[in-house]
Amino acid sequence: EVVDVTFDPAKVSYAALVDLFFKMHNPTQLNRQGPDFGTQYRSVIFTHGPEQARIAADRLEAAKASGRYKSPIVTQIEPAPAFWRAEDYHQRYFQKHGGSCHVSFAEVQNS
After folding, report:
1. CA separation for the pair 12, 7 (Å, rounded)
2. Which range marks the domain in which residue 84 is found?
3. Which has the closest alpha carbon to 39: 74, 5, 68?
4. In a domain, 4, yes or no
5. pLDDT tens readout for residues 56-92
6. Over the stretch 3-36, which tens digit does the pLDDT of each residue have?
7. E-strand stretches of the chain
8. From CA 53, how far away is CA 105, in angstroms rounded?
9. How far apart are CA 78 and CA 92, in angstroms?
10. Phi, psi for residue 36 in degrees, rounded to 5
C-alpha cells in the first residue's frame, strides 16, 4: 500500500520528505508495518526520475549512518510504477479511524 505524494518544491524539498518518511515508519521491518504484513507493506521509496533516486539513496545512507535504528534498514528504492486510486474504504483512513493508525503523525506536525 503506497501513497503517491504531490508536493511543491518551493515549500518543501524532496530530501525533507524522504527524511520524514524514515521518521514516520519503521524502515527495519521486512515486508511489514505494525500489525500488517506482506510485500505490499514493505518499506519502499518509489522515485520519479534519476534526481529523486539520487536524493533517496543519499537520505537512505544518512538514515543508516544516523545510529537511530538498532536493526538494518531494509528500505528499497525503485522507479515509480503506475499508480491508481485505492478503493473507497481506504480513502481518508486516518480521519475515519483516528488513533487506530500505527503511524505517528507527530513528526509531520513538527516539521
Report:
1. 7
2. 14-109
3. 74
4. no
5. 999 999 999 999 999 999 999 999 999 888 888 888 8
6. 889 999 999 999 999 999 998 888 999 998 878 8
7. 32-33, 36-37, 44-47, 76-79
8. 25
9. 26
10. -95, 140
In a domain, 53, yes or no: yes
Contacts of 96 by beta carbon, 8 Å cutoff, 6+ apart: none
b/e map 7-28, b = 16+ CB within 10 Å: eeeeeeebeebbbbbbeebbbe
Find the CATH number of the domain harbouring 69: 3.30.1060.10
**Per-residue DSSP letter, 6:** -
- Per the structure, the count of domains in the chain is 1
Q: Is 89 exposed, middle or buried (0-12, 13-18, 19+ CB in 10 A)?
A: exposed
